[in-house]
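Notebook entry, structure prediction.
Reason for the run: the old model in the group folder had no record of what sequence produced it. Starting over properly, with the input documented here first.
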Amino acid sequence: MKILITGTAGFIGFHLAEKLIHLGHEVVGLDNINDYYDVQLKYDRLAFHGLNPQIASEFHRIQTSSLHPNYQFIRMNLEDKAEMMDLFEQQRFDVVVNLAAQAGVRYSLTNPDVYVSSNVQGFLNILEAARKYPVKNLIYASSSSVYGLNKSIPFKESQSTSHPISLYAASKKANEMMAHTYSQLFGIPTIGLRFFTVYGPWGRPDMALFLFTKAITEGKTFQIFNHGDMSRDFTYVGDIVESIKRLIDTPAQSDPNWDPQHPNPAHSSAPYRIYNIGHNSPVQLMDYVSNIEKYLGMEAKIEYLPLQDGDVPNTWADVSELIESVHYKPQVKIEEGIDQFVKWYTEYYKIDVKKA
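New structure, fully documented this time:
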């Protein structure tokens, strides 16, 4: 199939492109390479796939990988509707996987405007393009943060997500509602994915594993909120990618048993589905830190603080819907995942942890 992946200079998009390229799909990657975090890491991800960073830095210039003839990349903003329409018209994609978005819960507290332009307007442009140039399957990243004030764990897709506590979460909730509208009105099959704390090699520098590892190797103190009384359903990026790969082959179908008198928000009479993708086994944050210390062979220096605005104390994914649909459950254990990240981190940044 010909597949558009937005966000391929990003963490999950990079790994998904790697998987689909090697499966023989024709992949077009798209990213705006913004400076939310270190752009060099983004260019290095692209270079790993045989893309010239200098060419990749130019907007609207499509480039074919020197390593993979079935992989092309273009730098573009989702907000640029005219360019998005042109791309869809020229390429005629079979599948779209939209992973590009302005990420970060805490960043949304101080920079709200970018979440509306990127996550809402950008996604609207993708929906409009898919409406005009139909695709067989449109998959997009939502987030576990949509569960907001809900404390009924494990989180199930059938639960209410009407009480988000950050604009980032609200923008992802908006994506789910927008997708349903286009599925209902225009028959576009859409699948929303609520990711639970994704981690692994080539990860994002603004996320806990990266921040903690960096601080520990530099001998610096880092902050842990809610005085360490937090748990997360940490999900290895390889499990995320395997789930997406299987869902690419399983477009959403209308649910013949959907009851408008008792509506399940994760299903519909339209071709629309929502899935949690999490490990289904939450880990205490301090146990997470202990594993980082173990694989680095170094001790952490921690400052404990109260819970931050926009944060939730605990996450835990019920993944029974995913298992039922694609017969897969995320399975990489936290010890293995952190080990893989630490090996990548120390190699990428050329750190000898025995001397650090």
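Summary: The longest helix spans residues 112-132.
The old model has been moved to the deprecated folder.
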